[in-house]
Amino acid sequence: MDVVRVSREAYAEAFRRVTGRPLVALPQQAGRSDSEIFFESLALNGVSTGGSEQGGQDLLARYTRELAAAFSARRDLLTRNGRLLPGALQAARATAGLPGVIQSVLTGTIRPNAAEKLSAFGLADLFDLDIGGYGSDVYPKGSQLLASRVQAEEKYRVQIAVGATVYIADSGRDVEAARIAGAGCIAVASGRSTVGDLRSAGADVVLTDLSDTAEVVKAVERLTGVAASR
């Protein structure tokens, strides 16, 4: 989904509330977590953390709370100023219906805001957010993907082969995270990264968008081995 306008407004409000300074410069967001964006924003806008790690973590905790509040206050704007990308809902429904598939999210967005986005566009019931990875987590996405797999195994009491996990993402950093976790990666050129960028990064499958539901399902089946297990 594309809710960049709403996200930027929420970033700016949360940043101002925490630092007392306007957010003049915003770093590139593609593939980055909300915590990374915050610390890069501090540097770009000349805001000091006080020179201590604890000071930085305290600022981040305050910012996370303010960001959730600012985003929640704008939930009615998500569908008005944002959009669900073509085929996303149909693809998520189709893959959710595959036998043995467990779907969650691995996103740079903090969990409350990820939940707001999914709810706004009718996707919430298709994902188990309890086993996901989010922008407030301290670990990189590759480690989060590994942790999500373990959490899914524990919650659903199943064994999930390393190669039976697939990450659908849209940036080169996400492709790298999938590779670190030993997961397959379906990369969609719906963000700043081009088809060429994603192929060069090493994605297993590269799609221009999610409009062809059958193509998405076929890629998921091939990378996870779902079809072979039927």
Shape: globular
What is the string of SSEs from the N terminus onward?
Answer: HHHHHHHEHEHEHH
Q: What is the count of structural domains?
A: 2
Number of strands: 3
Unreliably modeled segments: none
CATH class of the largest domain: Alpha Beta
What distance lies between the first and last C-alpha atoms, to the nearest angstrom? 31 Å
Radius of gyration: 18 Å
Portion in helices: 40-55%
Number of helices: 11
Quickly give the structural class. Answer: mainly alpha
- CATH fold name of the largest domain: Rossmann fold
**Biggest sheet layout:** 3 strands, parallel
Beta-strand percent range: 5-15%
Average the pLDDT over all residues and give the rounded result: 91
Name given to the CATH architecture of the largest domain: 3-Layer(aba) Sandwich
Per CATH, the superfamily of the largest domain is HAD superfamily/HAD-like
Widest beta sheet: strand line-up: 1-2-3
What do you see in this structure?
It contains 11 helices and 3 strands, in the order αααααααβαβαβαα. The radius of gyration is 18 Å and the shape is globular. The chain has a 3-stranded parallel β-sheet, sandwiched between helices. Helix 2 packs across helix 3 (53-72). 37% of the residues are buried. Helices cover 52% and strands 5% of the residues. The protein is mainly alpha-helical. It has helices at residues 4-19, 34-44, 53-72, 78-81, 88-96, 111-120, 141-156, 172-181, 195-201, 213-224, 226-229, and strands spanning 166-169, 184-188, 205-207. It has 2 domains: 4-79; 84-229, 3-Layer(aba) Sandwich (Rossmann fold). The longest helix is centred in the first third of the chain and has 20 residues, at 53-72.
